[in-house]
Design goal:
There is one protein chain. This protein is of the alpha+beta class. The chain has a single domain (about 10-205), classed as 3-Layer(aba) Sandwich (Aminopeptidase). Helix content is about 40%, strand content about 20%. The protein contains 7 helices and 10 strands. It has helices at about 15-25, 30-35, 40-60, 90-100, 105-115, 140-155, 165-175; strands spanning about 10, 65-70, 75-80, 120-130, 160, 175-180, 180-185, 190-195, 200, 205. The strands form 2 sheets. Strands 1, 2, 3, 4, 5, 6, 7 and 8 form an 8-stranded mixed β-sheet that branches. A two-stranded antiparallel ribbon has the order 9-10.
Length: about 220
């Protein structure tokens, strides 16, 4: 990995939307989850742009979005200090507009992720993306370290889902532990649930016990 010297991390704003949506769509375009959600790469590019446009604007409005000075990376965090209800009817309608015929798998994915989301107060890393031409330079790790320092000051853990082994190894190196996996049905890929606990005298707090919640979009 070629390290980039101390990339400048800053809060993202609406003026960053165009470049950051493109980074998200390109960074997530390849991989087992993408292949499962939308097998056709051309359709995937169109749907992913709409999906990540929605995700970025939602993050700017309801979460905390960080980027770099050159807009080549983005992290979308959500404080989850208590269980967050979802307007299932509104989300279903949004996914049908965004994904069209591919909406059922997006609904299934979001339903599965929500069902296994920990209830313990934490910050949730919904998305971390780096421009594919700038990957393996430590930019993603720098974005994470920026927010991890704040979480340690607040005494809060972090939670995320990794959709491939490469990302899982990165998160393990950065202090996360792996919890029980999620196996998506209909020959879907495995999702690795990851937890970065709060510091203790013996290390960090372990992955919390999670009781699956039943929800239907």
């Amino acid at each position: 990995m070629t390290l980039t010297n101390n990339p400048v991390v800053r809060p993202a704003t609406e003026t960053d939307a165009g470049p950051l949506i493109a980074v998200l769509a390109e960074a997530f375009h390849e991989g087992p989850l993408a292949d499962w959600l939308i097998p056709d790469p051309t359709d995937r590019r169109t749907v992913y742009y709409r999906y990540f446009r929605d995700a970025l604007h939602h993050g700017l409005k309801h979460g905390q979005v960080h980027t770099t000075a050159d807009q080549t990376a983005v992290a979308i965090w959500y404080p989850r200090l208590e269980p967050t209800p979802t307007d299932t009817r509104e989300r279903l309608e949004a996914l049908e507009r965004i994904a069209g015929p591919y909406a059922p798998k997006f609904v299934l994915l979001e339903e599965m992720l929500d069902a296994f989301h920990p209830d313990e107060p934490h910050h949730y890393l919904a998305y971390l993306a780096v421009d594919p031409t700038r990957q393996n330079r430590g930019i993603g790790a720098a974005l994470l370290a920026h927010h991890h320092r704040r979480l340690d000051d607040l005494g809060l853990p972090a939670y995320l889902e990794a959709s491939n082994m490469r990302n899982r190894r990165l998160y393990l190196r950065l202090g996360y532990t792996a919890g029980p996996t999620i196996a998506l049905p209909t020959e879907g890929p495995v999702i690795w649930r990851m937890w970065r606990g709060t510091p203790t005298s013996g290390g960090r707090t372990p992955f919390p016990h999670t009781r699956p919640r039943r929800r239907s979009l």
